[in-house]
Design a protein that fits this description.
This protein is of the alpha+beta class. Helix content is 44%, strand content 22%. Helix 1 runs parallel beside helix 2.
Length: 59
């Protein structure tokens, strides 16, 4: 999966996914703050986490 595809998935779920300067990926809700952010060095993990964050928020 490319970064653009992953961003598209996150956007569809109501989240943002960005590659930060350190090379890590940052996932957060669009209206999220620093307490809801998640950092990982794996794009696959970032997408999986985005899905999980959406599921948990729905509950």
């Amino acid at each position: 999966m490319t970064l653009q595809e992953a961003k598209s998935v996150a956007r569809h779920l109501g989240l943002t996914l960005r590659k930060v300067r350190s090379g890590d990926y940052r996932v957060n809700f669009r209206d999220g703050n620093e307490t809801t952010r998640y950092y990982t060095d794996s794009l696959e993990d970032a997408v999986k986490t985005a899905v999980e964050m959406t599921r948990k928020r729905a509950l």
